[in-house]
Structure formats: C-alpha cells, structure tokens
Amino acid sequence: MEKNINSLIRSIFYIAVPMILSNVSAPLLGLVDTAIVGRIGTTEIGSVAIGATTFSLIFSSFVFLRICTTGYIAQSWGSKNTAEAENIIQNTISISIVCGLFVILFSIPLKDFFLLLLGPSYEIRSLAESYINIRFWSAPAVFFTYVILGSLIGSNKPFHVVTITVFTNLVNVFLDLFLGVVLGYGVIGIAIGTLISEWSGAILGIVLIKQVFPEFKLFSFNLKFSQLIKKMILSNIDFFIRTILLLTSIMLFTAIGARISDLILAVNSILILLQMFLSYGIDGFAQAAEVLVGNAYGSKNKSALKRVILITGLISFIVALLYSLVYFFLGINIVNLITNIDEVIDASKHYLPWIVISPIISFLSFHLDGVFIGAARTRVMRNAMLISFIIYLFAIILLVPVLENHGLWIAFLIFLLFRGVTLAVKLKSIISIK
C-alpha cells in the first residue's frame, strides 16, 4: 500500500511540476511583452494592453477545447484504447478549426464590442485596432494548440506541453524584439511576432502529437457523430457556459472595485495578482488530478480513483497552506515589489487579510475542478458554477453597499468557497463508478 502511495505521489509531481512551469510562463511572457513595448512609448503600452486583454477574454472563452479534451483522452489512455483517443483528437481538432474560423468571421463585431467594453482613448484605440486585426488570424492556431495540449496532458506527456509553451514564448519574445524594436514596426511588429509564434507553436504541436499518436492525420477533418463525439460536444458547451460565468465574475469584481474608487481599483488589481499566483501553483496539481482521475475513471479502478482524489486533495491543501503562510509573513513585501506608490501600499494593508485566507478557502474549488474534468463531468461543473455565481451576486448586493471593498472581497471568497462546496456534494457520483 505504501509503495502504491509513493508511486502515486511521484506520478502527481511528474505531471504537476512541468504544468506549473507551463502555467507560470504565460504571465512571465506578459511581463516581457510589457517591457518590450515599454521601450517604444506609453500609447503603445496601452494599445498592447488593450489588445492582449481582448484576446485573453476571447481565447479564455474557448479553453474548454483543452479542458474537455484532457478528460476524454485521459480516460481513453487509462483504458488503453488508443484508437478511441486518436478519434477524439481528430474530431476535436475539427471543432477547434470551426471555432477559429467563427472568431475570424465575427472579428469586426467582437473587436468593436471589446473596445467599447474596455473604453480606451482615441490614440490608444487606433493602435489597438491594428494589433487586434492582426491577432485575430491566430485564433485557429490557438484553438488547435488547445486540443494538442489537452491531448498531451491526457496522455501523460507533461514535458511535451512545457516544450510547446516555452518554444512558443521564446519565439514570441525574439520576434517582438526584432520586429517591434529592432526593425521599428512597433505595435504592428509585436502583433505579427505574436501571430507567427502562435502558429509556430501549433506546428510544433503537430510534430509532438505525431510521436504520441502515430496514426494521427492532420488533414482528416471530419466529425463522425458517434455517441462519444456527441457527448464531447455537449461537454464543450457545458464548459463554455461555465467559463463565461467565471470570466463574468472576475470582470464584475474589477468593475465594482473601479466604481468604489480609483485607489480601490489599483489595490484590487494588485491583490488579485496574488490570487492568480495561487492558481498557477494549485492548478498544476489540479491538472495532475485531471490526468490520473481520468486514467482511473477510464479503467474503472475505484480504489485507484479514491487514492488519486485523496492524495491530490491533500497535496493541494498543503500547497494552499504554504501560500497562506507566505502571504501572511511576506504579503506586504510582495505588494512593495509590485508598486512603490505609498497610497496604494497603505490601502493594500487593509485588504491583505482576505488574500491570506483565500488559499485555504479556494483550494478545494481548484482541486475538484481537476477531479471533475478528469471524469468528464462537465454538466456538474456547469451547474455548480451557476449556483455559485448566483450566490456571489446575492452576496455582492447584500455586502458591498454596507462594507464596500471589504464586502466585495467577502463576496468573492464566498463565490470561491461555494465553487468547491457545490462540487464536493457531487463527488460521490464519481467515486461510485461501476
């Protein structure tokens, strides 16, 4: 038994560590992009920020392509059904290409909507439009890569995922510097560099997926509407709804903070970064749970399934506790690293306690997301998110008028807590697999 647990822990860290590295590379790339554009001008900084935010919101809405693929591939891999896994990849790639073409087709209304939502000045808007017009052509590559990453995660190839992510980011940094700064194309050069890097990552993904699934055929795009594929499409729709609710909750948090005051907006923007850093760490173990739960669920191994859920949950709790201790002892020092504005630092001290307790409150939601993704139970996740979102809205209505930003943080933590609780009450439906 002890040998099995030690082996399981090694498997968890084998998947989690590279996934954490992959997760962290995205925000680090954002910092590098900001540093590069910061050498050009303030208007350029704002335009790239607006453009990057636009695509973060659009592309995040389609992350279900990665999530759902992971769960189904992990189950096929666990049951040693390679043919089924290859069929899933082929059909999901077809879905991703359709989604990419859909985004390109509706690029003009999408661009207008997000520019209206984000409200940049005239000067920034003009440059941001140029950036956005170029980046839209990367949508098929990004969505295609989502499927490749989901397939590689589900087939226990986390280092392939790191390879694609790091390669894409390095190409992006090099081309942004070369086109944007050296050749002097500015924002347009940075947009082109990012576009090329995203297509380069997709091409590398094809090479790596062929190593894992030799029968994969790139140009065999067709949807065979078997029961499994119908189930996958419904799962994608469920997860799309869940993702939209999650993005809306974060946008609502930001918008309400902005309405309280500019100072509160600045403080919340910094503190929410600490919550994001938490997600980068715990998500690695949640992604390990996705794979190992999927493997056990696919092979119908109930005892292995229980061990995976228990051990990944325990590790997630320990990681969350470590985050809380770091934020308790070093939280204000971290804030000082992010900003040197005394007013913002002083205000942050009043709200820092919410970030200290946040890891303990929210770890369960991250962990159980991984468990339910591995079991491909996206309808449960959708319903849990809907219930949590409604509770969040009521908490905002009741608490913000009385407690202002403290009320907003309490409402947000209630939202995170109920995301975990609503999934936990459905956990028995996974464990009772037959």
Index terms:
single chain, about 425 residues, mainly alpha, 2 domains, globular
Describe the structure concisely:
The chain is an all-alpha fold and 434 residues long.
Secondary structure layout:
Blueprint: H1 2-37, H2 42-60, H3 64-78, H4 82-105, H5 107-118, H6 122-135, H7 139-154, H8 158-182, H9 186-212, H10 227-260, H11 262-298, H12 302-338, H13 342-374, H14 378-403, H15 405-424, H16 428-431
Helix pairs in contact: 1-8, 1-11, 1-12, 2-6, 3-4, 3-7, 3-10, 3-11, 4-7, 4-10, 5-6, 6-9, 7-9, 8-9, 10-11, 10-14, 10-15, 11-12, 11-13, 12-13, 13-15, 14-15
Protein described:
There is one protein chain. With 434 residues, the chain is mainly α. Helix content is 87%, strand content 0%. The chain is built from 16 helices and no strands. The longest helix is centred in the middle third of the chain and has 37 residues, at 262-298. It starts with a helix and ends with a helix.
Strand content: under 5%
What Rg is obtained from the alpha carbons, in whole angstroms? Answer: 22 Å
Distance between the termini: 22 Å
**What is the residue-averaged pLDDT?**
86
Q: Based on helices, strands and strand pairing, what is the structural class?
A: mainly alpha
> How would a textbook summarize the main sheet?
none
Low-pLDDT parts are none
- N-to-C series of helices and strands: HHHHHHHHHHHHHHHH
Principal-axes geometry comes out as globular
Helix content percent band: over 70%
Number of domains: 2
Q: What's the number of helices?
A: 16
Total beta strands:
0
